[in-house]
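Q: What would this chain look like folded?
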Amino acid sequence: MWQCPTIVWMRGLSHIDENTFPADPRLDSIPPSWVAAWRVTKEERLLAGRSAEDIAAGKQYFRTLFDLIKTAHGAGVPFLAGTDTPAPYVFPGSSLHEELALLVEAGLTPMEALQTATRNPALYLDQQDQLGTIEVGKIADLILLEANPLEDITNTQKIAAVVVGGKLFSHSALQALRTAAASSAQQE
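A: My prediction, written as C-alpha cells:
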C-alpha cells in the first residue's frame, strides 16, 4: 500500500482562513479565473457556517496528519509526493517543493522526501528501468540545484538549471519561462 498524503493541499484547506494566502506573490502567475475560484471556495464553501472551533479543529487535524505520516513511515509504508494542484492556494510547481519540506517536517529524511518524487513513483509505476534514478540508459529529465537538498530540503528551490527531453534550460531561460507564464496567466 502506497500513501500520497498531499500535505500541502491539507495545509491550504485547513489554513484557508488565514490572510497570508490572498497576498501571496505567486498569485501573479495564476490565471485570474483560478484566483477567483479560490476566493469563492474560501469564502462561500469552506468558511461559510464554520465556527472558530471548526477552523481550529481543522488545523488540529492538519497537525495530526504529521503524526499519522510518522507512524506509517516508521511501519515501512512507502510514500509518494503529491500536491493536488490547482486546489485553493496550492501553487503549480512550487507546491511540490513545499510538499517535500512538509514530508521532512513529518519525519522523513531529506533523501526519503526526494525519493517520494523520484524513485518511488518509478517503483509504483513499475518503470524503474526507465525512470526514478540517474543511470545510463534512463530518461534524463532532472533538476540541477545550487545547494545540497540533503543538508536542507528547501534547497530544492535553488534551481540552477533543468534538463527535459535532453534540452538544457539555464537559470535565465527558466526565469524567462516564468515571466512568460505569468504574463500569459494574466491575459486569460
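The chain is about 45% helix and 5% strand.
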